[in-house]
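Input sequence (448 aa), recorded before submission:
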Amino acid sequence: MTLTRSPACHWWLLAVFGLSGCGVEEESPSVSADGPDTVALPTVAAVDSLSPAVPESETESPPGDSVPPGEAVPTGEAVPTEAQDTVPVPTPAGDTLSLPLVELSRRVQSLEEENDSLRIALRTLIQLMPSRTSEADSAGQVPPSEEELLQVDRRQVRGWGLRTLIAVLFLGLTALAVRTMSWILEKLAERSPKRRLIFKRLVPILRILVWAAAAFFTVRVVFSVDGQEFLAAGAAVGVAVGFAAQDILKNIFGGLIVLFDQPFQVGDKVSVGGTYGEVVTIGLRSTRIVTPDDNLVTVPNAQVVAGQVANANAGELNCQVVTDLYLPGWVDEGDAKKIAFDAAASSKYVYLNKPIVVLVKDKFEETFLVHLKVKAYVLDPRYEFLFMSDVTERARSGFRKAGLLGPMHGVRAYVDLDRFPELQQIKSAPPPDPGFAEEGETEEGETE
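Predicted structure, token format:
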């Protein structure tokens, strides 16, 4: 069967190629439901399904006249291509569908890979963000209105007000507990003389511990302040207060040094800066001392730490008391010492487990006197001056009984020359005239 030229055949081929080219060019990308601007990119599988399958025989056939459908070429017969009258038809860009679709599929694959990488990065960022922000973004929550914000602020204000009230009540109960504890310890100290100083020394230590625990509980539990925030706030407040109240901080650190170094304790007899008395309280800012005149003196702790401190009993219940006695210069020292020793040993305030010492010293106060210094220990430092008075009374009574102390002692200073015969010539001789020198003597006292 031979193929003949026919003008109708050529027009039919042109119509087929034109229709096939128009079909490819008229295909437009699908528009998504979000809007006309959003173009949905086809996936690789969708693009592969849209590409038509091209038979191998058609792709391998050389360009030329096509065989019209319905007419088959018998096998074994050679097609006389040389006798055909073929017309070359220019192939438009839309005829070959395989190459543009493959390129498009490659681009779609690259876009999908980029989308996957962007999706992974976005997921990582969402995981790093706070959970509340991610939940709000995913759920699409609406930001709170002004009324809701005001309600939240009111709740916060009410919460802080309630916490402040609880803190004030708690600190008030703490102050009451500290006062009650101090009163109980003072009563125990009075009822137990042997443990009196022990109970008194517990008062300042327990007071500081209770207030520190109350402050920690108020900050951490009542106001729910974090530990790091508490340390940061404490550092900031410390710096601010350090510049504003240096003297107060010096006294506070001085009080801590006194509590831990213990140069003296509550109940000791001390002398600080010219003030002598019994220590009654040791605080963070000052130390209070009761003088023998029953005056309460407040000494700043900075002055206590910087100055010298004399401690009479150094934490012991007994205390040494020195009593001064004066006698005329002509008395027998041995008798005077014996009487003074008996006066100290017979006192009801004396502490006999420690020795009693009597010292003799000459002293001139318009005349010669015998100065007796009696050193003895008292049972309790609070009886210091009672013990001193008792020893003085007993000693003066013994001196009068022994004739060592005359009735005119202390009235005026005099020397009784009648009791000393060797001094009679001095008593009867007239006093020399200081304005004239004796005969035979010069002004320098030399004899011519």
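Checked by second reader. The chain is about 50% helix and 10% strand.
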